[in-house]
Write a structure and sequence with these properties.
By secondary structure, the chain is α+β, with helices and mostly antiparallel strands. It has a single domain (9-140), classed as 3-Layer(aba) Sandwich (Trna Endonuclease, Chain: A, domain 1), CATH 3.40.1350. Helices cover 28% and strands 26% of the residues. It has four helices and seven strands. Strands 1-2-3-5-6 form a five-stranded mixed sheet. It has a two-stranded antiparallel ribbon with strand order 4-7. A hairpin with a 2-residue loop joins strand 5 and strand 6. The termini are far apart.
Length: 142
């Protein structure tokens, strides 16, 4: 017999950081499955990836770095990494280098790459992406 108390919904905010990461992986992997991908979680951040998304065609394999927000990092440049993150129930998956180049060409984003975070730390992220970034991100929404 199944104990129904095991199946009570839990608020995301009650989860610790590792549990939230696991939760987000499962939510992202479920959306990938709708497009014919199987997601294989990696234990060691292999070549910058948290997981590999393998397509049923046997040809497409994507190295995915899972994030909690829209993120860029110099350490991912040239590694053929895709970034996946959730905004509520929407999953966004973008090729890091391609999207970075697009944003660097936008006038409204130029100041981002003059920040201490980007210049000295080699990374930049937005807790909540600005509306202009969402407009560009929509092309990468699953």
């Amino acid at each position: 017999m199944v104990n129904q108390s095991q199946f009570q919904r839990r608020a995301y905010s009650t989860l610790n950081a590792r549990q939230q990461e696991n939760y987000n992986f499962q939510k992202i992997a479920a959306q990938f499955a709708d497009y014919g991908f199987n997601c294989l979680r990696l234990s060691d951040d292999w070549q910058g990836a948290d997981f590999i998304a393998c397509h049923i065609d046997g040809v497409i394999f994507l190295k995915i770095q899972q994030k909690g927000r829209l993120t860029f990092n110099k350490k991912y440049i040239g590694k053929d990494i895709h970034i996946a993150f959730l905004i509520e129930n929407d999953c966004y998956v973008y090729p890091h280098d391609e999207f970075l180049e697009r944003l660097q060409k936008l006038d409204r984003c130029k100041s981002t790459f003059d920040t201490k975070s980007w210049i000295e730390n080699g990374r930049y992220d937005w807790r909540q992406p600005p509306s202009w970034a969402i407009d560009v991100l929509n092309e990468y929404k699953l």
